[in-house]
């Protein structure tokens, strides 16, 4: 393509309009016209502009089709409306992700859609942790932008989680319950979690039995597994079963423990209460010496206290909740000056 046609393509909107003539030097001895230095430079610039215009067209087309990887300001991106992880940025895997992106950059792009309610903003389909890491590092996040319906967004969100980092059982259960609460049909739920109908029924049953505040307090508990979560759901369904658990979740020891340990603490309290409630009422006498419910065993490494199954319902949870206060009272008594014996 000659420069005249390039100039027409770039600068003339109407192809019927003739482009301005290009002044050339007189012909050389062989009859060829030799362009001046300025004209030659203009030809190079016109070629570069045309190449850039073509690249811009391709980029725009790929962006519309969800093929181009773009760099987006994390501040312009909002999370998905459906929460899938209980703790997105509080585990060791997230810290490793931040370190990896700091050293090597973001290797895998995230998926965004244009925000359906806020012009100029985006919404995450998947890649929340990479988005958070990019924001923490103050760098742009590499993303593919694709127009998605709500159903397409949650299906993409669920499939990416299944392929890259499996959610724990309780995270999948809570994700399913949130999608159901937002009105998605079972077909969408099955597609988003890649779950068969029987498994979906288990997810929803557990999510309904265990309150969200307790799930958030425990965390994802990746090692707990489906059978123990289902057993906990049965324990929690009994009237008043969660009363002793509240005190446990408010202790510093509970909050400082790993997620799987927090699960075990709650599970043990609920199991103890369930077993005590299943015993005949006559088996537990309200006038028994309180220490008869506790077994004390001296070990080489210390002293072990065991709450027996015959203990009144809620005793273990109450003692766990009071343990820190008792230790503080003991230390205060030890530190108090001793009165002389008269």
Automatic annotation (TrEMBL):
CDD domains linked: RepB_like_N
Listed GO MF terms:
DNA binding
Record InterPro entries:
Chromosome_partition/occlusion, ParB/RepB/Spo0J, ParB/Sulfiredoxin_sf, ParB_N, Plasmid_partition_RepB, Plasmid_RepB, RepB_N
Q: Which GO terms describe its cellular component?
A: chromosome
Specify the ParB-like N-terminal domain's residue ranges. Answer: 70-162
Give the SMART domains listed for this entry.
ParB (SM00470)
Which Gene3D superfamilies does UniProt cross-reference here?
1.10.10.2830, 3.90.1530.30
**Biological process, per Gene Ontology:** chromosome segregation
What's this protein's family per the entry? Belongs to the ParB family.
Show the NCBIfam families listed in the entry: parB_part, partition_RepB
> What name is this protein filed under?
Plasmid partitioning protein RepB
Species of the source: Siccirubricoccus deserti
- Taxonomic lineage: Bacteria, Pseudomonadati, Pseudomonadota, Alphaproteobacteria, Acetobacterales
């Amino acid at each position: 393509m000659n420069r005249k046609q390039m100039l027409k393509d770039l600068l003339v909107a109407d192809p019927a309009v003739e482009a301005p003539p290009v002044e050339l030097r007189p012909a050389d001895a062989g009859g060829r016209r030799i362009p001046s230095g300025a004209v030659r430079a203009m030809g190079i610039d016109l070629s570069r502009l045309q190449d850039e215009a073509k690249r811009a067209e391709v980029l725009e087309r790929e962006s519309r089709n969800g093929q181009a990887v773009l760099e987006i300001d994390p501040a312009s991106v909002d999370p998905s409306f459906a929460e899938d992880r209980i703790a997105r940025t509080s585990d060791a895997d997230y810290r490793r992700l931040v370190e990896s992106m700091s050293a090597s950059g973001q290797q895998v792009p995230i998926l965004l859609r244009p925000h359906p309610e806020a012009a100029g903003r985006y919404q995450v389909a998947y890649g929340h942790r990479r988005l958070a890491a990019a924001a923490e590092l103050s760098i742009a996040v590499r993303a593919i932008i694709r127009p998605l319906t709500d159903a397409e967004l949650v299906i993409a969100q669920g499939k990416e989680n299944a392929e890259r980092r499996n959610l724990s059982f309780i995270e999948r259960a809570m994700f399913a319950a949130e999608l159901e609460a937002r009105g998605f049909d079972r077909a969408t739920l099955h597609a988003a979690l890649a779950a068969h109908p029987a498994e979906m029924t288990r997810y929803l049953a557990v999510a309904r039995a265990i309150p969200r505040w307790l799930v958030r307090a425990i965390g994802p508990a990746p090692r707990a597994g489906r059978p123990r979560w289902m057993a906990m759901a049965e324990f929690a369904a009994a009237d008043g079963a969660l009363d002793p658990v509240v005190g446990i979740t408010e202790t510093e020891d509970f909050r400082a423990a790993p997620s799987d340990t927090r699960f075990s603490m709650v599970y043990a309290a609920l199991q103890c209460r369930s077993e005590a409630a299943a015993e005949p009422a006559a088996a537990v006498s309200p006038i028994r010496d309180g220490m008869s419910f506790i077994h004390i065993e001296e070990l080489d490494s210390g002293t072990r206290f065991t709450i027996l199954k015959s203990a009144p319902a809620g005793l273990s949870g109450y003692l766990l909740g009071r343990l820190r206060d008792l230790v503080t009272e003991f230390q205060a008594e030890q530190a108090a000056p001793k009165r002389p014996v008269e």
